[in-house]
């Protein structure tokens, strides 16, 4: 496909989530719950996160565990995007998530307090229509974290208007969602196959725009590198705005069979030393803050930092704040892309230590490359041609 800016390309700025608390343990616990994996310290199971009393990599002998409170799992969402829903419409701040396929929102049908959130009220929209008999359940391992009924309505993403879009209204939210600030819902950008609406799934906004011939089946993201210029595009790409050349965007095939933007990632490097991982796969996930990779890769990364260790209290790898961090790159298809060294350290771990932005994926079968990696690249998601394109953003790679 051509990577040139289309006349129909819609550019939407990202907004920093004012409710975000940059906590490494919270970000890691949230990912464990989202994907139901076991790491050296955390265990995600059925929508709940447990913390081992003693770190271990033996899944058959986990030892004593304690549940992690919901308030210690949430509030790590860094970015939100303004989306208007309905006619005349209300503007909500939504989490754009390439790891899920539901568009769900805080609504007037929610049972409980909605303080601090903008809500969607279908009775206030002249274009809202209920979908008879349709219900939804979305969670990251849990079958009841958020659920409700479904309407169709017109949504506006920047200047892109999509009529008859399925909108999932929250009637019930678990405590983990109720304690999360800064977002009024979620807009899924994964493949429609994993949409949770029953008895018949609804199309994602991207798939709906393709079906209605409103935009090309392409969107892209360049996360904020501390300059306030993060953005999404829909219907095309804008390489120049991302600070890259169109010719630098390297495309690789995607396996969409599990609903994710999954690709081959069979190597990594640490200070130029190659780690080969035949058959390894990864996904790009804007809904996960950290980069989560195999133990082999993680161990090699932190072996390169004197004083690095797995910290039981923090729940993951920490290292001395003043230490020099290694240059780390992960493969997307056949090409390696370097992680910004300025994003390597995720947050303060106390006692002169920093929580690493790259952590173990535990027993999850694929790598999860979240915001820590995505800040280093310009990513193009091409649903029409089942591929992703990636270009290295060089403005913030070196420390």
Molecular structure report:
The chain has helices at residues 24-35, 175-178, 205-211, 239-242, 295-303, 371-374; strands spanning 10-13, 15-16, 42-45, 48-52, 65-67, 79-85, 90-97, 103-105, 129-138, 146-157, 160-173, 185-188, 218-222, 231-234, 250-253, 262-264, 267-270, 273-276, 281-284, 291-293, 309-311, 316-320, 328-332, 335-338, 345-350, 353-356, 358-360, 367-369, 377-382, 387-392. Helix content is 10%, strand content 38%. Strand 21 (309-311) and strand 22 (316-320) form a beta hairpin. The chain is mainly β. The model is unreliable at 57-76 (pLDDT under 50). The protein is globular. The strands form six sheets. The protein has a six-stranded antiparallel beta sheet with strand order 1-14-13-29-30-15, with no helix packed on it. The chain has a six-stranded mixed beta barrel with strand order 6-7-12-8-11-10. Strands 16-19-28-20-27 form a five-stranded mixed beta sheet. The relative contact order is 0.17. The chain is built from six helices and 30 strands.
Number of helices: 6
Please compute the radius of gyration using only Cα atoms. 20 Å
Helix content: 10-25%
Give the total of beta strands.
30
Strand order of the largest sheet: 1-14-13-29-30-15
Mean pLDDT value: 85
Q: Kindly, what is the distance between the CA atoms of the first and last residues, rounded to a whole number of angstroms?
A: 34 Å
In terms of structural class, how would the helical and strand content be classed? mainly beta
Q: Show unreliable segments.
A: 57-76
What characterizes the major β-sheet? 6 strands, antiparallel
The amount of beta strand, in percent, is 35-45%
Shape by Cα distribution? globular
